[in-house]
Amino acid sequence: MTCRAVRGGERVRSWSRTARGLRSASHPGPTAVVTLLAAAFALGVGANAPQAVLVTLAVLAGQLSVGWSNDWIDAERDAAVARGDKPVVAGTVSVALLRRAALLALAACVVLSLATGWAAGAVHLAAVASAWSYNLVLKVTPLSWLPYAVSFGLLPIFVVMACVPGASTAPWAVLATALLGIGAHVANTLPDLEYDRRTGVRGLPVRIGRPASSLLAPLVLMLATVVVVLGPDHPPGPAVWTGAAVTCVLAAAAGVVGRIRTRSRLPFALSMAVAAVCVVLLVMAAPELMLSG
Predict the structure, then answer these.
(1) How far apart are CA 272 and CA 183, in angstroms?
(2) Which of 106, 238, 244, 282 is 20 to 30 A from 122, comparing alpha carbons?
(3) CATH architecture for segment(s) 10-167
């Protein structure tokens, strides 16, 4: 009886460890942000509950497939530089399990995306394919920013097509989310630039260096915010202007710190703060995603 209880406790601990590894390998922060942004867009354009849930689940499945495939594909690189923050290197999850999880999530994404409609589903699957192209090929090239621009830019188009068939997406929303994706890519690589350089992942941020990347990330994110503020037909309210002012201050601080303290992690944190404000403003502008008239 005691041995059986011990074995049961060991199984529970093993499952718990694996679950933590899968959660960490899914890149939970970006996955949650993109999924919640899609849900906010869906509600903003007037989707009913089933539509909003279906869109949200499709985006979540796509994001999980992208996150898990990233850690699966990068497993050898991560092990080469002993990245203990990565679940595969830490031993909490295996490469084989990540591969199966990524492919299962991708299969679920295909089903859920096409359930929103053939055209809308094709748009979302193109966005997910673009993200996978980063993991598979483009992250080591000067075009590492391109999948982020494409995938983020297609997000509002997918939501509008899935929730309001026949409606068109406002060009400002596509431009703003594409810029948000580029800025997020550059900012997200700042903490890992040395790891990337040592493993041959020579994407755009590595090629232009930390000081330039520390300046580029907040500038692109600030530009995305400007598009969100000035793009919609209705004039910005006080809250929107306040958000724009905050992003300007944060972006300026990130740029200055990036030039003065080239090894500081503060530009990354400040850039992420700019991205957070931009996301909030995008959520506030969600009802304006569709073209009027």
Answers:
(1) 9
(2) 282
(3) Orthogonal Bundle (1.10)
Which part of the chain is CATH 1.10.357.140? 10-167
Long-range Cβ contacts of 233-242 (<8 Å, 24+ apart) = 233/288, 233/292, 234/288, 239/284, 240/281, 240/284, 240/285
pLDDT in tens, 102-159: 999 999 999 999 999 999 999 999 999 999 999 999 999 999 999 999 999 999 999 9
Q: Which segment of 138-142, 164-168, 270-274 scores lowest on mean pLDDT? A: 270-274
Question: Residue 197 gets which letter from DSSP?
Answer: H
Within 10 A of 10 (CB to CB), how many other CB atoms are there? 10
Query: Which one-letter DSSP state was computed for residue 201?
Result: -
Question: Helices then strands (H, E): number in the chain?
Answer: 14, 0
Residue type, 175: L
Question: 89-122 burial, b if ≥16 CB within 10 A, otherwise e?
Answer: beebbeeebbbebbeebbebbbebbbebbeebbe
Q: What is the Cα–Cα distance from 244 to 239, expressed in whole angstroms?
A: 9
Distance between CA atoms of 87 and 20, rounded to whole angstroms?
A: 8
**What CATH number has the domain spanning 170-293?**
1.20.120
Contacts of 142 (CB under 8 A, 6+ apart): 202, 203, 204, 207
* Residue of 54, 61, 57 lying closest to 101 (CA atoms): 61
pLDDT beyond 60 at 5: no
Q: Which residue has the higher pLDDT, 85 or 147?
A: 147
Domain with CATH 1.20.120 in the chain: 170-293
List of residues 6+ apart from 9 with CB closer than 8 A: none
For the entire predicted model, the pTM comes to: 0.91
Please identify which residue in the block is written with the tokens 């997000």: 155
